[in-house]
Automatic annotation (TrEMBL):
It comes from Arthrobacter bambusae. GO terms for molecular function: class I DNA-(apurinic or apyrimidinic site) endonuclease activity; oxidized purine nucleobase lesion DNA N-glycosylase activity. Its cofactor is Zn(2+). Residues 2-98 form the Formamidopyrimidine-DNA glycosylase catalytic domain. Its EC number is 3.2.2.23, 4.2.99.18. It catalyses: Hydrolysis of DNA containing ring-opened 7-methylguanine residues, releasing 2,6-diamino-4-hydroxy-5-(N-methyl)formamidopyrimidine. This is Formamidopyrimidine-DNA glycosylase. Residues 242-276 form the FPG-type domain. Belongs to the FPG family. It holds the Pfam family Fapy_DNA_glyco. Keywords: DNA damage, DNA repair, DNA-binding, Glycosidase, Hydrolase, Lyase, Metal-binding, Multifunctional enzyme, Zinc, Zinc-finger.
C-alpha cells in the first residue's frame, strides 16, 4: 500500500507535471470506485489544475477550486504518460479505474493519468468535492507525523492514552495520519520495540526512541522519494526496507533472521533479537509468544 512517503513523492511529481494543465476529460471506468455524485465529475472538465497536495494517504488535485481526491488503497497506483492512448476504456475490463486527459499549454504536452488497481479486491476510492474535508477519511485523520506541531510531547500524549498494541496504533489513520503496514514495521524495528507492545506501557526512554525512529524513517523515505517519477517510487520504497517484506533474510543490524506474523489479510515483519529480546512472536492462532 502506498504510504506517506510515496504519496508525498507522487504529489510532488504530479504537482510539477500537472500544475497549469487543463483537464479536458475525466473517464471513470469503475463506478464502484467513485464515492461521490455531487458535484458530478464532469464539472471538472475544462478547468485548470492549480496544484496537487497530500493529506494523509490521500492525493488531492485542486481543479480551479474543486477537488479530485483519490486514495490508492492496498493495490492502487498512478500511471503518467505524455503519450496517452486514444482508445476507449471498456467498463470493468481492465485494471484502470479512472483516466484523466489533460493539455499543458506551457509546452503543448498532452497528458494521460491513469488510476490503476491490481487484483480482484477493489478498494481504490475517488471523490469529487468542494472541500477536501468533505471526504470522510480526511475529516477523521489524526495529526501528520512530520508536521511542526507533532513533537515528542504530542506522541507521548497519544501513547499514554491508549492500551492498543503499538503496531496497530501506528497504522490507525485516525490517530496518526499516513503510516501504514510497511513503515510501522520499519519504525518499530529502528526503535527496537515489539509490535505487540501496549502503547501506554512504553517508558519515557522508549517513547523518545520511537519518536526519533519515526522522524528518521519517514524523513529519509520522503527525501528518497523526492523528485522521482511515479514509475520509480515503488522500487525506491522497497529498496530501503530493513525488515518489511524481508522474511527469512538477515536483519541488517544484528544478522538474525527477519521473522513474520501472519494475520487474515496482512502480515508484519520484525527481528526478534532487535525487538523482542529474542522471543519469537506467534500469530493470533496460537499464543502470544512461542516458548
Amino acid at each position: 500500500m502506498p504510504e506517506l512517503p510515496e504519496v508525498h513523492g507522487l504529489c510532488m511529481y504530479l504537482d510539477t507535471q500537472l500544475r497549469g494543465a487543463v483537464l479536458n476529460e475525466v473517464r471513470i471506468n469503475s463506478f464502484s470506485a467513485l464515492k461521490t455524485a455531487d458535484p458530478p465529475y464532469s464539472v471538472l472538465e475544462g478547468r485548470s489544475v492549480q496544484g496537487v497536495q497530500r493529506i494523509g494517504k490521500f492525493v488531492c488535485v485542486d481543479v480551479d477550486g474543486l477537488f479530485f481526491v483519490f486514495h490508492l488503497a492496498k493495490a492502487g497506483w498512478v500511471r503518467y504518460t505524455e503519450h496517452p492512448s486514444s482508445a476507449g476504456l471498456r467498463m470493468g475490463k481492465s485494471n484502470i479505474s479512472a483516466r484523466l486527459l489533460l493539455h499543458r499549454p506551457a509546452d503543448e504536452a498532452h497528458i494521460g493519468v491513469d488510476l490503476t488497481e491490481a487484483g480482484t479486491k477493489k478498494s481504490l476510492a475517488i471523490y469529487v468535492v468542494r472541500d477536501p474535508q468533505d471526504v470522510p477519511g480526511i475529516a477523521t485523520l489524526g495529526p501528520e507525523p512530520l508536521s511542526p506541531d507533532f513533537d515528542l510531547g504530542a506522541l507521548a500524549a497519544i501513547l499514554g492514552s491508549s492500551s492498543q498494541q503499538i503496531k496497530g496504533l501506528l497504522r490507525s489513520q485516525g490517530v496518526i495520519a499516513g503510516i501504514g503496514n510497511a513503515y510501522s514495521d520499519e519504525i518499530l524495528h529502528a526503535a527496537k520495540i515489539s509490535p505487540f507492545a501496549s502503547a501506554k506501557s512504553l517508558d519515557q526512554a522508549t517513547v523518545v526512541r520511537l519518536y526519533e525512529a519515526m522522524q528518521e524513517i519517514l524523513v529519509g523515505a520522503v527525501n528518497a522519494a523526492a523528485g522521482k517519477p511515479s514509475s520509480e517510487l515503488k522500487d525506491t520504497k522497497r529498496s530501503n526496507f530493513r525488515v518489511h517484506a524481508r522474511t527469512g533474510l538477515p536483519c541488517p543490524v544484528c544478522g538474525d533472521i527477519v521473522r513474520e506474523v501472519s494475520f487474515a489479510d496482512t502480515s508484519l515483519q520484525y527481528c526478534a533479537t532487535c525487538q523482542t529480546n529474542g522471543k519469537i512472536l506467534a500469530d493470533r492462532r496460537t499464543s502470544r509468544f512461542l516458548k
